[in-house]
Amino acid sequence: MSTVPQKRWSFPLIPLGLGAAACAACCAVPLLGLGLGAGGLGALVGLMEPMALGLVGIGLVMAVVAVRRRSNNHQASCAETGACSIDGACGCRPADARTPDRHDPAIACTLPGEQMSERLDEFRALLARALVRRQRVDGGFVWTLRADPGIEEEARALAAREQGCCSFFRFDISSDGQAVRWKATAPEAGWPMLELLYETSEGLTPPAASPPRPAA
User: Fold this and answer.
1) Tens of pLDDT along 186-212?
2) CA-to-CA distance for 206 and 133, rounded, in angstroms?
3) Nearest Cα to Cα of residue 190 among 140, 143, 142
4) Which of 50, 67, 109, 163 is surrounded by the fewest CB atoms within 10 Å?
5) In terms of Cα–Cα distance, which of 157, 158, 197, 152 is closest to 175?
């Protein structure tokens, strides 16, 4: 692979080198004036100067053409072979190529199996005492809890323990003094595990109040 670029570059260097040599010769001509007549010196300079400029110009044009050809061929080659699709070194990275986010948490629970049922029981115990309403939202759900003394603190402590083993869960707990709002979300890959958490509130919401009967 290394021989092709060398040939592409060496060809335009030929006229560039000849032009540079002619320029050097033009500069050296005055030193030869001692041995040449005025007419001979002028004729020699008049012949070599346009030749040098012409060679330099030709070399520059050929160098530009070679660079453009090299770039086009390189991109076409890696587009066909996918040679640089990983690091994009040649500038032809596919448009949809994305660098994975190394900070995304793994979709996995590190809690030992024998402790999982105990953790779910902790959720059920809290929800059985305080759950008022539950609703699904984009990417997760929201539990609304009564703002009884200690409920918010217990909810935050339980959320911290759960995130310690399921770091992909995102919990947002807030309180306005009347109710504690616990929002839980997760990446799409973690929705099945989030659904398992949501199911701990199944059947724990209080029944809706019966509408008043009309007066007889």
Assistant:
1) 999 999 999 999 999 998 876 543 344
2) 8
3) 140
4) 50
5) 152
